[in-house]
């Protein structure tokens, strides 16, 4: 049985090394040394350095995922209210991710880290969208079953919404001014209203920026 103390030590070691280093320049040997365990032990827990990074992303952003799963079960709350709460959790996760990225960049300002950020952001966004999609799909389906949402493809709608929110709130893949981000969010809400057969302005409370 795997020791989760050592599992977390490995993740802690990579996170600490990433505060001052480009993740692509960090070796498995360095992670093992920082974690205080043998290099061979690393491969008992993770098949590769990339897998360690994936696990670190999952651990750092599991809170909004737990929130989403909880919201999906709260059928006594309006689906649109739960969607707004899920969007807020998504926003909070993005803000935390960017804060950590900015701190690392300030510590390592001499390094051109644009490719590094894009590499880690890709993993973060992929994980966030993949993990939140089932919960949001379930919420939308519940709204359809209750007659509050009129749409034939709940999973597709969930994916579209999450992609737009994640990319715009991350604001690094396609950098935009705050006004442009707000306009995109309002446009998304307008499309949601039309696509779910709700009157204009009825979903403005979903605005989270």
Order of H and E elements:
HHHHHHHHH
* Strand residues, percent: under 5%
- What is the general shape? elongated
Mean pLDDT: 80
Structural class: mainly alpha
Extended strand count: 0
Low-confidence stretches: none
Q: Biggest sheet, open or closed, and with what strands and sense?
A: none
Could you describe the 3D structure shown?
- The protein has 209 residues and is an all-alpha fold.
- It has 9 helices and no strands.
- It has helices at residues 4-18, 28-35, 39-45, 49-60, 62-73, 79-107, 114-145, 154-170, 178-195.
- Helix 1 packs across helix 2 (28-35).
- The chain is elongated, with a radius of gyration of 20 Å.
Q: Which key terms come to mind for this protein?
A:
0% strand, mainly alpha, 209 residues
Give a short overview.
The protein is an all-alpha fold.
What is the secondary structure topology, with strand pairs?
Elements: H1 4-18, H2 28-35, H3 39-45, H4 49-60, H5 62-73, H6 79-107, H7 114-145, H8 154-170, H9 178-195
């Amino acid at each position: 049985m795997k020791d989760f103390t050592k599992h977390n030590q490995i993740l802690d070691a990579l996170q600490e090394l990433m505060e001052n280093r480009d993740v692509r320049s960090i070796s498995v040997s360095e992670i093992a040394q920082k974690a205080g365990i043998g290099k061979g032990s690393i491969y008992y827990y993770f098949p590769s350095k990339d897998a360690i990074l994936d696990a670190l992303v999952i651990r750092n952003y599991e809170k909004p995922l737990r929130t989403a799963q909880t919201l999906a079960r709260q059928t006594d709350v309006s689906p649109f209210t739960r969607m707004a709460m899920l969007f807020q959790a998504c926003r909070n996760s993005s803000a935390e991710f960017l804060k950590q990225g900015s701190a690392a960049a300030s510590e390592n300002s001499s390094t051109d880290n644009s490719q590094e950020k894009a590499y880690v952001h890709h993993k973060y966004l992929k994980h966030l969208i993949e993990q939140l999609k089932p919960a949001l799909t379930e919420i939308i389906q519940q709204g359809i079953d209750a007659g509050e949402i009129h749409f034939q493809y709940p999973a597709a709608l969930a994916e579209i919404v999450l992609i737009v929110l994640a990319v715009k709130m991350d604001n690094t893949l396609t950098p935009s001014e705050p006004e442009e981000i707000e306009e995109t969010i309002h446009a998304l809400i307008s499309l949601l209203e039309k696509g779910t057969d709700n009157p204009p302005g009825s979903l403005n409370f979903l605005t989270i920026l």
